[in-house]
Amino acid sequence: MSDGSAERAGAEWFRAARFGLFVHFGLYSLAARHEWVRSREAMSDADYDRYLERFDPDLFDAAALARAAREAGMRYAVLTAKHHDGFCLFGSALTDYTSVRAAGRDLVAEFAEAMRAEGLRVGLYYSLLDWRHPDFTIDRYHPLRDSVPPEEAKGHDMARYRAYLHGQVRELLTGYGPVDLLFFDFTYPAKGPEEWGAAELMAMVRELSPGIVVNDRLGIPGDYVTPEQYQPDAPLTRDGAEVMWEACHTLNGSWGYDRDNHDYKSPDLLVRMLVQSVACGGNLLLNVGPTGRGALDPRAAETLRAIGAWTSLHARAVHGAGPSAYEPPPNALYTQRGDRLYLHLLAWPLKHVHLPGLAGRVRYAQFLHDGSEVRMRELDGGEHEHNNLAPPGREPGTLTLTLPVVRPDVLLPVVELVLHGEEP
Ligand code: GLC
Questions:
Q1: Which one of 205, 219, 235, 404 is most buried, counting C-beta atoms within 10 A?
Q2: Of 292, 317, 342, which residue is a domain's last?
């Protein structure tokens, strides 16, 4: 917890879950060139309305999305209930600018129901920015920054927008069953806690949903921090205390569907990112941007499937696992859950891997993907190396594993080490 009080009830599931799906879908998905398209191209309301007129998410299948997420090993999912363009994927009494009005679909309702049916926790993303609301003041990101006459701009009133923002969050937390997580987005120099009425909003959220997990982008401390398209390689701390965190990442650099962008991260890179997050006490929220019709594009679907092939065999090295106090050898990461220490081999060694400090501590070693025993012994220079040539760090106390020459055919090979005398 970042505000110093007792840890929120929701922190427990969030920490154990480790892996979630982010879903960016909205009118920008039809433009298919990044979710900031309206700002980047300074589109007028009328320009942008061409997507509203054509909005028809006939292939948005929340049940299929939920299944794909669960099969990828994800335990929660976060949908853009409203993005910066102000378009709402839910029925709101406060605006007509919604998917219900445009296409007769309450996608937040469909999403929440489908995720729960697959046993996933439900998260909603809500943009604090709103480029459609008549009271949201014009700033440098606003699509109308160069086109609104100054007289008209003066009439924008953030107090009225604030009431709308709070009202919509209330709608989301009261109309869709229990919401487990809220992802607000975002605070920047022109607008922050004061404009959002952040303290009051947070108090309302806590009152409506006491166990909910809330991120930190209201500009006041939340329950977790949100490094974006950045991969921490050590636990994150504030004033010396570890904080909960979740790295959010795109598949290809864009959150919204971006047809011509092929800069995809490979499944094996994504698995390493997931494991590195767990090894550093964090979560990974991996994004997909469904197409203009609402379907997962083939590349995203294939990526989720490939990750799932790994997580289905390696789930226990991820879910409920966290950092280890043991120091991993080079080119490896450790995750730990109770008496199980997981050695993730980022590069494949030739036959031997030396684990400092583990001699006498390991009861049994096996590959996690197939449960095959990995032989081990204590080697302190021994047979293959002259003692005086043993590299520094190969101290007595080192445990040596003997691996096959051929690397197992999984995205990231993992050896499960069963420790003596650790609390399960
Ligand atoms: C940034 C972007 C936004 C995206 C978000 C995801 O804040 O403005 O488009 O939804 O990151 O974390």
A1: 205
A2: 317
